[in-house]
Amino acid sequence: MAQRKVEKANAEKGTKILVIGMVIFVVAVGVIFSVISNNQKNHVTTPSQVSKADDYGIVFNAKATPRLDIWEDFQCPICNAFEASNNAYVNELVKGKKTKVVFHPVSFIGTNGGQPLSSDESAHAAAVAACAADSGKFIEMHKALYMDQATTENSGKWTDGHLVLLAANVGISTPAFAQCVSSGKYLGWTQAITATMAKNKVTGTPTIFLNGKVLNYQTKTAKNYVNIFDAAAFKKALKAGGVL
Fold first, then answer.
1. Nearest to residue 103, comparing CAs of 65, 163, 62, 144?
2. What three-state secondary structure class fits 207?
3. Which of 114, 164, 175, 188 is the most exposed place for a label (fewest CB within 10 A)?
């Protein structure tokens, strides 16, 4: 009788150990898959000159100060107006290497709940600009995209084929570039950079920051009001912020 009790106790003990072992195994597997999943989510293929520390922006003159951040959407007509007024000056700042300039080409127009769709032309244009960055032609492609902007948003104009031809006009015609475009290599990056808008309180495009402070062009009575569409006013504001 005593022997049976001992055997029963040992059996129950063994069962408990087995159950605990299975629970630990399941938890461990869950942790492993969670880590793998998070690593996959955090792994984004980024173009050259991109800094995750700068919210995935394309950075020029990384060690320079002051700092200019340009949040834009290549389909945005207001962004186009800003580009038309200030493109030459911003390019001077990039070439002068005395100002850190960070471009944030987001997919704000035609998105679903703030997340870019694979068919969204803003996302594709930004991804193509990223491909151009790998060829050392971001600035040139940046200008070309705005000059080629359609009169209506998501019109279907910016197909991969059209964008490859547009790039050829600025001197990019390598097979590597065409493959970068057709494969959608940097579409994940466009999602990553667009996802940082909320963190930076960017609610529309264009949004311009100088040394971390927004240049307000919407409220004329505000102390930080700057008419960013007036080249002289924009340049004056930047000079006041320490831009040489």
1. 62
2. strand
3. 175
CB atoms within 10 A of CB 166: 19
Same structural domain, 10 and 58: no
Beta strands in 82-171 (DSSP E): 100-105
Query: Other CB atoms closer than 10 Å to residue 89's CB: what's the count?
Result: 15
N-to-C CA span, the chain: 95
Same domain, 3 and 119: no
Return the residue matching tokens 């209506």.
Answer: 152
Question: Tokens representing 87?
Answer: 């493109």
For residue 109, name the pLDDT band (cuts at 50, 70, 90).
Answer: confident
What is the model's pTM? 0.80
Determine the Cα–Cα distance for residues 55 and 207; give it in Å rounded to an integer.
Answer: 14
Residues in the chain: 244
pLDDT tens digits, one per residue of 185-212: 999 999 999 999 999 999 999 999 999 9
CA quadruple 217, 92, 77, 240: dihedral, nearest 10? 0
